[in-house]
Amino acid sequence: MMIIKWASLARALGAVTLSAFLAAAWRTAEPMPWRQPRTVAEQKAYNRAVFDRVWTQLNQRHFERASRRAAWRSARARHLPLALQASDTAGLYYQVLAPMLNATGESHVGASPPVGYERNWPQLQSSASAGRPRIFIAPGNVSDGDMLRDIGVSLASGEVIDLIKGGAAERAGVEIGWRVDQITPGAGRYERRYWFRQASGELRSLTLDHRRPPPPRMPYERRFLPSGALSLRFDAFEKPQIDWVLSQLKKAPPEGVILDLRNNSGGAVTENERLLGALLPARSLIGSRIVNGRRTMLFTQRGAEAYTGPLLLLISPRSASAAEVAASALRHHGRAVLVGRGSAGAALTSRAFRLPDGGSLQVPVYDLYDPAGRRIEGAGVEPDVHAAPTLALIQAGRDPVLEAAEAALASARR
To answer: Is 121 helix (H, G, I), strand (E, B) or coil?
Structure first.
């Protein structure tokens, strides 16, 4: 089926060719490698097909679709002409789709290009026509700044919230609280030039080398602390991680458990319910989800609690989605003390949809409220005990957030 009716046979043939290519990409189980359309006609048809699928899914699937349809139509009228003018895939995604989706002001909404677009990112970021695009390093990054781990930086909403000791950023003296203003290619193959906005508002430029990234980070980690308490870090609410956490909770020490969610970006709703079911009594209120104004209450399932001892949660601005839902529910029921910094405020339930070129679209399909009826999206969850790292403490090999959690556990035992 032709995507666009062209005025000439030559254009029609180009559209048919691209339609077949796009249809094949949609049917493929895994995203196809990215391929730049060869002609202006192909590019225009490509852009139209991708844009139409993005707009249609947003219009039909968003959790407030009933009240926002006028806004979606307005967004389409503004951005479709720009989409048709985009000269390549990177331009379509990062100069048209990203601004359109960012304008919703919500988390869990975004479009990821097909595999292979990263070949264009240095040219796009250094181009004056690109304006100030959102930072992007490689496809498939699941949360803000994941790829900056190569230089030992943990980033949230553009702000440096943690550093890895021995990483390029720590060695260069990057401070907690600096904000990444811009990234461009460096002179060397492994170099990037970073502009950081300091607390004073002044910009500082640093060229950092990506050649020696920190060792790969395991998705979960267990540590026994000097106090005898058990610290469990897991970075996603996915079945392997939750299986592991539940197995550890069954043999947890009486001194207490610290769940480290500082880098947990969320995950499956079902896995969040499994964890909360092991920490709260059956039929405990988790919160509520809302679609087009209709509210559904969420409760833990029937089943035995796996762990009833002292419990603390570590949170940070990178704690998002299911991590925030879990933190708010556990505190609401008086089950856990939260330590660290305020969470991301990114708590919507979303679905991923394949785009015709093999890219993907994330659309929020449910809004989430905590057990007290408070919306988490945009507000986050504040800790009971505030604690944050500093460059000096990181260089000294200390973790002040974990230390504060241990102190809170000791206080609770007295």
So the answer is: helix
